[in-house]
Amino acid sequence: MDGNGRWAQARGLPRLAGHRAGIEAVRRTVRAAISHGVPYLTLFAFSSENWHRAPQEVSDLTGLLRYYLRHKVAELHDEGVRIRFIGDFSRFDEELRGDLVGAEILTRGNSRLTLTLALSYGGRSDIMQAASRLAQAIADRDVDPARLTERDFSRFLLTADTPDPDLIVRTSGEYRLSNFLLWQSAYAELVFRDVLWPDFDEAEFAAVMALFARRERRFGVRPA
């Protein structure tokens, strides 16, 4: 979800206004995903690199996260949305970590849509922690390295209980993954849109779905 800052700058507004508008785009996107029957939606909300931004912006972002966890999760729960979080939460304060856990517990029985929010997340870090956990499992003799498969390795990733993405969309005209779901995106279809994230709406979502419907999914196999 890229372009919040540029959206605000173009309107002579503070960056915080762009982030607030970006959250409204999240709400629209969730509704669109439900409308289109999409069972899994993952949003890259805060990357591990975002910690290097100006302290005030980081504070604004975590403050918005805290507010919506406390005041908007109930709306998602009422819509039947299950919320999950992936990332390294050690840099969040204890209170915020408690809010994350509370949102997951409240919504864990829902099945209409699984919404995963990547917070303080990095794809390389995800792979590294998976390798570390796998090494420990091998040391404990819970895994036989001679019989190890890609599916086995995937069980140690933070996304172990969700399928790999079929489609990855990046907004704002940037053409890179920026350390997002690097292992999981091996066969994902990639779509890049010029629209800034706060302007992403139901029509954009429908356009992306139409593009995806025209893609031929081969997974490295030549068509018959």
From TrEMBL:
The prosthetic group or cofactor this protein requires is:
Mg(2+)
Q: Which organism is it from?
A: Ameyamaea chiangmaiensis
Q: Which GO terms describe its molecular function?
A: ditrans,polycis-undecaprenyl-diphosphate synthase [(2E,6E)-farnesyl-diphosphate specific] activity; magnesium ion binding
Q: Extract one GO BP annotation from the record.
A: polyprenol biosynthetic process
Q: Which InterPro entries match?
A: UPP_synth-like, UPP_synth-like_CS, UPP_synth-like_sf
Q: Say which family it is in.
A: Belongs to the UPP synthase family.
Q: Which residues bind Mg(2+)?
A: 2, 189
- What does the note under cofactor report? Binds 2 magnesium ions per subunit.
In its keyword annotation, does this UniProt entry include Disulfide bond? no
Which keywords does UniProt give here? Magnesium, Metal-binding, Transferase
EC numbers, comma separated: 2.5.1.-
Subunit structure as annotated in this protein's UniProt entry:
Homodimer.
Gene3D superfamilies hit by this protein = Decaprenyl diphosphate synthase-like (3.40.1180.10)
Residues bound to substrate? 3-7, 15, 19, 47-49, 51, 53, 170, 176-178
One Pfam family here: Prenyltransf
Function as written in the Swiss-Prot or TrEMBL entry: Catalyzes the condensation of isopentenyl diphosphate (IPP) with allylic pyrophosphates generating different type of terpenoids.
Q: In its UniProt entry, what is this protein called?
A: Isoprenyl transferase
Q: Where in the sequence is the active site?
A: 2, 50 (proton acceptor)
Any one GO CC term of the record: cytosol
The record's listing under NCBIfam families reads: uppS (TIGR00055)
